[in-house]
Model the fold of this input.
Amino acid sequence: MGKVFSKQIDWVNDTIKVALVKSTYTPNQDTHDEWADVSANEATGTGYTAGGVALSSKTLTYNSSNNWWTFDAADTTFPNVTVTFRYAVFYDDSVSGKPLIAYLDFGSSQSASAEDLKITWDYFYQDPDSGSTTTDSGILRVQV
Done:
């Protein structure tokens, strides 16, 4: 995420991809910073395109009342795939090294069998102090 805020990644104009990754991958936020650190564990399957799919209709919106940035894109569809995966990994396919941006852990292996696999970009957040919950559209939200 640091590369987004230091202008090395342009969320809106660069080609940001999301790829599906198997449960054999163990995320390491300290040492994994490029697609090459992840790609050996990319999911494979019928209809799945190596490297994942490009996000479309990307937006980056700042909410000055709450001091947060929301990263969003159109919901993503992997059409007619048979694939098993655990993670969705976001990376910038436009720049050298293909830097990682974030990953989404589905908690366990998920499967699709000859169907359109759609990921809806909504999030759920529970405040650890108040216990209140928030749901909203977006891939992720960062408070600054």
